[in-house]
Each structure stands twice: as C-alpha cells, then as structure tokens.
Specification:
10 helices; 10 strands; alpha/beta; 4-stranded antiparallel sheet; Rossmann fold
Length: 251
Amino acid sequence: MGGDVILETHGLTKEFAGFVAVKNVDLQVRRGSVHALIGPNGAGKTTCFNLLSKFLSPTRGTITYNGRNITSAKAADIARMGLVRSFQISAVFPHLSVLENVRVSLQRPLGTSFYFWQSERSLEKLNARALELIEAVGLAGYATIPAVEMPYGRKRALEIATTLALEPEMMLLDEPMAGLGHEDIARISALIRKVAAGRTVLMVEHNMSVVADLSDTITVLQRGEVLAEGPYAEVSKDPRVVEAYVGTGHA
C-alpha cells in the first residue's frame, strides 16, 4: 500500500437550510488503499460521498485530489482526472449487449462517446479491450446478452466493467453490495478486491462483513462528524463506535 495521500479533505462542511449534514470532516485516503466510509443511518455518509464525487458543493472546506484543489470542480472534470464514481454514472444501457455497453464507455476517452451512428467496423477496434474487461469481471459468457436480461448481481459486474473502461486511478463505490444476495455479495466482493489492485478505492458500504474483509482503513461518521478512524479490528472495538451502532442492526 502506498504511503502518500491521493484524496484529502479539510474542514469539509455541508449545511442544508441550517441543518449541518457534514461538519468539519478531515479525511485522508492513502494511495493504493481500500478505504471505507461507514456509520449509522443519518450519519452523513451519503452527503459526504456526494461532496467528494462533486454531486454536491460544500458550504465550507476543501477537497484535494492528487495535489489539485477540486473543491469547485465538476463531476465530469474529476472523472477525466481519474476519479470516477461507480454505480451512479456508469453507462449501462439496458437494451444494449454487455459488449456494446463496455464499448460505449471505451469511446469516452476517444471523444467519440455515444456516436451510435458510426459504422460497426469503426468500433470493432475497441472489441479486444472490451472483451478483456468483460472477462476481467467474470462476464465472458455474457458478451452478447442484453443488459436488461442479466441477473442483478451480473449487472453490478457490468457496471464495474464500464467504470474500468474509463481507466480510473481512484474508484468511488456507492454501496456496491446494496440489493445483492449472499452469492452475489461474495462474487462482487472478490471482484472489488481484484480491481483494487493498483488502484485506490473509497466506498460507502453497510455490510460490515464486506467492510471488514476488504478495507485497509475505516472512517466512521456520526451526526456528520468523524467519530473514529483506523483498521477494522481497532475501530470495531471502539466503545464510541459500538454505542453509535447499538439498535441499528449493523453492529
């Protein structure tokens, strides 16, 4: 795991009509790590994630990515810098095949995104890389299947493939296990571990067994503030964390 910081916030604060959803959050995500953002319901996780991925603008504070101040940047701008939010902005078109979906994402860096009127032959040069990505996420047998016909867990794998097509340096995963059954959770968890090699991952996740299994560092939020931070073995025994989770069903 790299020792330097790739994503950092100072005093990150978001207020909504007088309600403070995120308050003075100082966050450091180390390059090459898997970092989880957790907390009980209403802790401010989603708001914080929306601030980091530029879906919201902070009331106060700064966000730095790779040494660049991105506090005022737009979501599309940071995606071009290699900071990509998965499961929210990935291009999954239900009536396109798995191969076609991944190929659309591969077109983005070429500046030809969504040029559906291009000839099939002009897009064939992307097939080799698309098939590599499809195989990497365990969908080799699904290349010609329309996305709409795939099981939910397989669609999640496709969404990871379309995100990987953007060649992210850092991936923001928003509750990747939401709605998945036990078998799919094991499959997507293994996939995240695989794609995290050589990348940085920050994820919001409610499944504590997944957090314990995948994360190098965990930041716990409560009422919009950082309650605790560290490895799972340490954080899970923190009395403040245990108290925060009592009665939530996530302890």
